[in-house]
Amino acid sequence: MCYIAAKEVLPIEILELIQNYVEGEYIYIPKREENKRLWGSTTTTKKEIKLRDDRIYSEYKSGICRKDLAAKYFLSKKSIDRIILKEKNNTIEERS
Questions:
Q1: pLDDT value for 55
Q2: Which residue numbers delimit the Mor transcription activator domain (predicted)?
């Protein structure tokens, strides 16, 4: 998201109308629903996090303790616990 000067993109009539409500402030204009994208749909971040979580769960099942996993992946122990629980639940759902 970037800053755009309203006077550069809006007709003066609309700008003056908006100034009746807010002046000299930043205003966020949200995207239309049909233009919104899901988080991670334009990057590989979602896939990378899933691969990391799979590795964490695999290493946990092989006997590596949560404290060591937290240090290795630069995460809190609570985050490791959350990942393990999520992956464990995913495994249970895949079996049924």
A1: 97
A2: 12-95
Residue range 22-31: mean pLDDT, rounded: 90
| 30 is a domain residue | yes
d(CA 9, CA 83): 45
Q: How many CA atoms lie within 13 A of 58 on its CB side?
A: 6
Q: Which domain holds residue 20?
A: 6-35
The answer to whether the CB of 27 falls within 8 A of the CB of 18 is: yes
Please tell me whether residues 25 and 55 are part of one structural domain: no
42-51: average pLDDT: 92
Whole-structure pTM value: 0.62
Which ranges in 5-65 belong to alpha helices (H)? 6-9, 12-19, 45-61
- Give yes or no: residues 57 and 30 share one domain: no
